[in-house]
Amino acid sequence: MGTLVELKNAIFKKLIGAPGKSLSVDLKTIGDSTDDGELYHTPGVFSKPHDHVIGVAHDINGFNIVVGTHDYKYDKDIDKGEAILYSIDADGNVLSSAKVNKDGKFIVNDGTKYAARKNDAVVVTIPAGTFIVSVSGGLGAAAVGTLNPFDIDVDGIITEGSNVVLLP
Fold first, then answer.
1. What is the pLDDT along the chain (168 residues), one digit of tens a residue?
2. Among the CATH numbers 2.40.160, 3.30.310, 1.25.40, 2.40.50, which is that of 3-70?
3. What is the DSSP string of 43-108?
4. Which of 19, 62, 118, 160 is most buried, judging by how many CB atoms fall within 10 Å of its CB?
5. CA 13 → CA 26, 117, 168, distances in Å?
């Protein structure tokens, strides 16, 4: 049976007898007794919790393994099938978030702007009246430019940037 605990002082280190480094945490139970333990994560997802996150610890042969955590301070309502990843400062304030919504869109910090990546196909529209399409004039005469009379669509490929989308 598990025990509800509060986590503090997460430290990344190799514990005695462990095959590699992991997060060691101080545990405080509801009765104020303290102990230490190891925080287990789902492979591919790793985070170092701030102090006062709630977890469930199981005693296995005299050693505590924390198998689940929850942060009541961050209460983000998402739809079924969605996932959210967020980072927080030492006080538990959310600094940034990334959400994959139920339509498969990856949304950074609740953003609404779309991003293009290197090698993405793009169409750029040059608005009417903003681009000189021809120049006339002779020797000694002033050059006169003619602006585009209508929008011009130009197809292309993004050639600079990253294959990874990083948005502010």
1. 778 888 888 888 887 777 788 778 888 876 677 788 888 887 787 888 878 788 888 888 888 888 888 877 776 778 888 888 888 887 778 888 888 888 888 888 888 777 777 788 888 898 998 877 777 777 777 778 888 889 999 998 888 766 655 555
2. 2.40.50
3. TT----PPTTEEEEEEEETTEEEEEEEE-TT------TT-EEEEEE-TT--EEEEEEE-TTS-EEE
4. 118
5. 13, 37, 32
